[in-house]
Amino acid sequence: MKHVSKKESQNEEDLKKKLRSLGLHFVIMYVPVLATIFSIVPLTLNDWLLVLAFSFPVIIVDEALKLVGRVRERAAFHRRMEKEE
């Protein structure tokens, strides 16, 4: 049996919680009775395209910043290792 670290276990739990939340949001949006109770309407294709148009650049910038951070962290690690030699 594979050992699962505490962090991996926490990540799995977080993912499950996020997927449940997302599922509930879709159920509330697209089940007419629940949409009426919560006073919401489903998003149209144009609405989703607008959401993607505004969120995609943010995702790209965020991923670029993470990449820069990883590169800088790796470079700092290599500098520390060279000093120890």
Notable characteristics:
3 helices
Outline the structure in words.
The chain has two domains: 1-42, no CATH class; 43-85. It is built from three helices and no strands. The chain has helices at residues 6-30, 32-37, 45-84. The mean pLDDT is 89.
Question: How is this fold's topology laid out?
Answer:
Elements: H1 6-30, H2 32-37, H3 45-84
Describe, in short, the structure shown.
The chain has 85 residues and is mainly α. The protein is 84% helix and 0% strand.
Number of helices: 3
Task: Report how far the terminal alpha carbons are from each other.
Answer: 39 Å
Strand content: under 5%
> Which blocks of ≥5 consecutive residues have pLDDT under 50?
none
User: What is the number of domains?
Assistant: 2
Rounded to an integer in angstroms, the radius of gyration calculated over CA atoms is 21 Å
Tell me the structural class. Answer: mainly alpha
Report the helical percentage. Answer: over 70%
Order of helices and strands: HHH
